[in-house]
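quick one, 258 residues, struct below
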Amino acid sequence: MTSEDPHPAPATGQAPAEALGFMGFWADIDADYELRYQEWHNCEHMPERVGIPGFIEGRRYRALLGSPRFFMCYVTDGPEVLGSPAYLAALNRPTPWTSESLTHFRNPVRSLYRNHCRVGRAGGYAPYILQRRFDHKADAATLAGMVRAVVGEDISGTLSGGLYEVDEAISGIMTAERRIYSGGPGRQQYLFTIEALDRDQAEAAGRRLDALMAEGASEINPGLYWLENRIQSAELRRPVAAPVAAVADTRIPERLTP
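---
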């Protein structure tokens, strides 16, 4: 994996450029359940998931246009975290609220990725994410060069981008949660992401990326989303251990000499 960051951000608990694991989940939600879904995802599900060892942050985005309406993702220390015993245990023991919420997912696609390349500003607030899920005749090194070129042309120093490749082995693991929502990994091998401060900036980067990847690309699935919520592991309020109560002294005091 290559990481190039000409505008490094301060260490503030943000996802580091060297984070190698990424889970992407695209889905529509039943219209009459959306508000309940957002409450569940904000208040129970994301805090639970980013509390798992190796998870760095979770995010949820809403589509600007079209479907799937929602994009959920998690950034991890490495792809192996997404197949770890701790994560699989959570996937196989859904809470009652999770079991209810997943029945309202429609057209779900969940893919687990390995990060090949991340360039530009690491961390920081970027409310828009542009995506291209795709197959390509070129190899990963050539594709990584494309996202470097797009981010490198940004004079503001605020764009970032990445290239991810599906990890088919861990993406295909069957779990109790997956049996509820009845979805699986997407067809495309690769995912490009561009994170930006505003919509025009994201769309301009998308046009440049499309031109670079056009020859040799197939099964292209585009998307542009805005950020609804983001929770980082470092921000979690973790339960404080209860103080150990003082042990009462039950000894009979010695009789004082008059």
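The chain is about 25% helix and 30% strand.
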